[in-house]
# Entry
Amino acid sequence: MSTMLCAEESHSLDRVIGHVDLDYFYAQVEEVENPSIKRRPVMVCVFSGRTEESGVVSTANYKAREFGVHSGMPISQAKKLVKDANPVVIKMEHEKYEVISDRIMQMVRERVDTLEQTGIDEGFFDLSVSSAGDYQAARRIAEDIKEDLLREEGLTCSIGIGRSKAVAKLGSDMSKPGGLMIISPNSTQSFLGPLPASKLYGVGPKTGLLLGEMGIKTMGELSMANPLDLERKLGKKLSAYLIGASAGADDDPVREGLEPTQFSRIITLKQDTRNPNEALAQLSAGIGYIREKLVSSDKSFKTLGAIGVLTDLSIHTKSRTFDTPMNAASDIEENTLNLFIELGKTVDKDFRRVGLRVSGLANNVNQKSLSEFLQTR
Ligand code: DCP
Ligand code: CA
Ligand code: CA
# Structure
């Protein structure tokens, strides 16, 4: 049988949608960087700076979770829970996780039809064409993604595959950590039916409560709820989605992000160095590339991040967020140099690769808004 699929044929086939979510992402990245901490409770924290201990846990590895530690918990409380288990507390370094996330998303994107990134460590993808609608082929693609991720980054993820976004998301959630769950179209309804309605993608705490008040506990019950009753409480749009999605019948497409949210470039130095000026000189083509991207999309950035990969391949970053958006070449150069000077002070080895990342993108103000455009016509 040919695996070629023409566009018309694909309409009649079931869609094959996936959801990928990295396991305990920030903490796992830290474990890869420093494998000796793997058996200990690892907590990646955001420090507010008020007192030495004030701040919250951003995420924790599964060892720490065994003690009850979770995202959003105050650091002092988390420390108490794990105090006898030789814990590791690490300061969150957002830019570093972004660099790794970009690489992973690029790798996934190359293996699927479309990818809709929905967070730093997760996204939906469409496999309908690349799997030719065959769930066994889809399984193999998902296994390849998992293997490549482990080999190239040392990281594990969870993947769910099903006929809709909501089903795929349940699959990745339920197979966490490290799993792969395939929900074939035939088994979708029996899979969804007994699950709690509160677990459905798009049901937040508030909607969950309202459903509970209406006596709707399972997705099976939700799929058979009276549409008018539901509409009265939740509005037309949400009700229609919930009734469809709980039966595995929502057809919300996987949307490739249309607007860029960041531009980045990393280069390998001709010679390892710790000298910021030298690093910057070699990065000038990269700066030119980013400047060109900003100009052609008519955008400015608020956050600039310098990335240094050292000779031991550890990733170090420094970033700065400005009050007003900027995009001039001179501003990029000057601030990148300053960041590399700061970064150079904190590292104990030479840079092997250096990079730059701009984010917090905003449209330039001289760009007319749609309403202005219409008024001046
Ligand atoms: N994150 C955060 N603060 C939160 C929740 C999450 O800073 N309240 C960050 C840290 C996480 C990352 O976002 O590593 C991804 O969030 P997830 O909800 O996917 O959680 P994890 O990946 O940490 O764990 P899991 O294995 O449950 O997916
Ligand atoms: Ca995750
Ligand atoms: Ca996630």
User: Anything to note?
Assistant: The pocket of calcium ion (ligand 2) is lined by residues 21-22, 25, 121 (CB under 6 Å). The longest strand covers residues 262-273. DSSP finds 16 helices and 13 strands in the chain.
